[in-house]
Amino acid sequence: MAAKVRMAFILTVALTAIVILAALTPMTAAAATASVENARDARIFELLDDDQNGSVSMMEFKNNQMLVFYILDRNKDLALTADETFLPADVFASIAGADGKIDTLEFLEIVDSAFKQADTNHDELLDRQEFIALLHRVRNR
């Protein structure tokens, strides 16, 4: 009898552990994803901040925007298709020309506009918070 009680207790503990781990797994995965995203965002900011002064000027932004374009342009045809960007379909469509692609001039126009909108304190610099907010807005559109 004691062996059955002990086995039932062990089984209950094991099942409880499994249920707890299953409940925590989605939170852990979400936290891991957020952590990776935050690290990536920080690295992008550091790459754009050429002089490493903690902010990205319009000049730094412009100097690097074509680099960003070329990185996104995986097939190197000087036009971005929807699958080469992380933009939601409706946002991509509103930017893309009649050909359904974003060419370099269209890209430069939206990047300039994005910088101005992101510069919420109008000091012509993007601090880390403004830059991260810009990335979140683009991702969540």
UniProtKB/TrEMBL annotation:
Pfam families to which the protein is assigned, alphabetical: EF-hand_5 (PF13202)
Domain EF-hand, first and last residues per copy: 106-141
Record keywords: Signal
Signal peptide start-end: 1-31
Protein name in the entry: EF-hand domain-containing protein
